[in-house]
Amino acid sequence: MATVDQANPAREVLNQAPPLEPINLFEVDLALREALEREGGQWGVDRAGEAGAAAGTVATLEHSRRAERNEPVLHTHDRYGNRIDEVELDPSWHVLLRGAVEREIHSLPWREQRAGAHVVRAALFMLWSNANGGVMCPVSMTHAVVPALRDSAPAIAAEWEPRLTRPDYERGALAGMAMTERQGGSDVRANITRADPVGDAVYELHGHKWFCSYPPCDVFLVLARAPGGLSCFFVERGPAMEFQRLKDKLGTRSLASSEVEFRGIHGRLVGEEGRGVPAIIRMVNHTRVDCLLGSATAMRRAVVEAIHHTRHRSAFGALLSDQPAMRNVLADLALESEAATVAAMRVARAYDDSGAPLRRFATAVMKYWVCKRAAGQVGEALECLGGNGYVEDSGMPLLYRDAPLASIWEGSGNVSALDVLRAMAKEPQGLPAFLAECELASGGDQRLDAHLARVRADAESLFADDGRSPEARLYHGQFGARRMVEDLGVALQASLLVRHAPSAVADAFCAARLGGGGRAYGTLPAGVDAAAIIERALPA
Fold it and tell me: For residue 13, what is the DSSP state?
């Protein structure tokens, strides 16, 4: 792109990429389009196309920049000293969140009783995440609270579901959660928030939560200790729920995340006393899927930005995208992005299907693996833009700051990996269902076949009855938990690519991820059709 200043030729802008927006983010994402139709969401293609176009407009990008630049401000008191606990948000935040609500991203599967609703919703979630990652937090929690209430508090569900699922920003309702405390973090059983019975399934809550995302939510699921043990409560925001401060976070800075104190606010019991974790875990499982979807989106957006930039930037006598070393990096990033997308959409379909063992196990595996890959992927893509990528105007620093979040939220690395081991031990149908899904590609690639054989053998060895107690075997397994989950995650990705992706993509992925490839991006082996992979990732 060249802009000439006739009065001062020295100001001529040369060798810079043109703006990427406007762009229909769905139309240029072949992997997502194919997965949407393949996994049962054909009826949502037009909806996805509309969302992809809206998310890729100049106006939407500017709203995202404003929401990130003008961060939330907590007002605890009014001018007269009255406690108000209000969060001031930039108008652009409301535009972005309204866009998600009106597209039913917070409620589609609960409103549309038809096959593929979770798949369509997953595609919409990924597309609108391009608009702004922060707004997707209340969207995710509101979506996830519905099945938790249906399972454990049907009376509350009957009362609140019409509002929680309404695609109306003013008349609907949003839900949040407050689980962790400063002394425990992910160890929620260390919670000391107290719940005192005051009526029929009604309790008075006293205590503090270290993280409570999005204070403007109308209702929250909260963990607190009742006489019968750690329990789950449905709390409506009110005067006895006092927000102490907003977190000064690394990323998702447009999102208000807070610390909160409960000073006698009433909560309604969800499930049974002492069964708080099982009651809230239904919500957590759904938000974990959204962690996976959000990470896949960040990886995809990073690739798009890198390819676009290098197609317009010249160095050493040629376009960057034509330089062999850069082509290798771009193709490698594109492989990782497509693998994340197809896995995320397959997990989404598991929530439409009746196969609960696969759903639970695949969510745990892929949440760990894809979310863990996102930060490295975005960092490598940023490097493709060089110094331009290090500047806020490029949008890459925002992606980079946001990328680690999903790997932390709802259980960071060790918690997620050990959750897979726990599922293997307590839900023995999960691993066989997962491996059966992977083995649908048996015979399609020898490297994948060999990898699956190793994974199966390792799993059988871990749980073999060799005289050790189950506790001892599980303890031993902790030392290899991450490696096992990585192997499982790559197995599903490779299987899906072998079955559904073009041969150039599938062969390159198996060669790089299963054939002893390099440790960094840009180390694909010779013979890979990098040009075809890049063209598929972002058609010229």
Answer: B
CA-closest candidate to residue 275, choices 334, 221, 232, 325: 232
The total of structural domains in the chain comes to 3
pLDDT tens series, the chain, 540 aa: 555 566 677 788 899 999 998 999 999 999 999 999 999 999 999 999 999 999 999 999 999 999 999 999 999 999 999 999 999 999 999 999 999 999 999 999 999 989 999 999 999 999 999 999 999 999 999 999 999 999 999 999 999 999 999 999 999 999 999 999 999 888 888 999 999 999 999 999 999 999 998 999 999 999 999 999 999 999 999 999 999 999 999 999 999 999 999 999 999 999 999 999 999 999 999 999 999 999 999 999 999 999 999 999 999 999 999 999 999 999 999 999 999 999 999 999 999 997 788 999 999 999 999 999 999 999 999 999 999 999 999 999 999 999 999 999 888 888 888 888 888 888 889 999 999 999 999 999 999 999 999 999 988 887 776 666 655 666 666 778 889 999 999 999 999 999 999 999 999 999 999 988 888 999 999 999 999 999 999 998
Same domain, 410 and 485: yes
- CATH at residue 203: 2.40.110.20
Give, for 500, the enclosing helix (H) or strand (E): helix 481-500
438 and 523: one domain? yes
Does 64 map to a domain? yes
Separation in Å, CA 409 to CA 64, 258, 294 = 22, 14, 11
How far apart are alpha carbons 121 and 166 in whole angstroms?
15
Containing domain of residue 74, as a range?
Answer: 30-136
According to DSSP, residue 217 is labeled -
- The reply to whether 114 and 127 lie within a common domain is yes
Asked if residue 158 belongs to a domain, the reply is no
Asked if the structure places residue 307 within a domain, the reply is yes
Question: Global pTM?
Answer: 0.96
| Same domain for 469 and 337 | yes
How far from 537 is each of 318, 448, 505, 528, CA to CA, in Å? 21, 23, 10, 15
Domain assignment of residue 115, yes or no:
yes
DSSP string over 98-132: HHHHHTTTTTHHHH--STTHHHHHHHHHHHHHTT-
Instruction: Among 246, 275, 304, give the residue marking a domain's end.
Output: 275
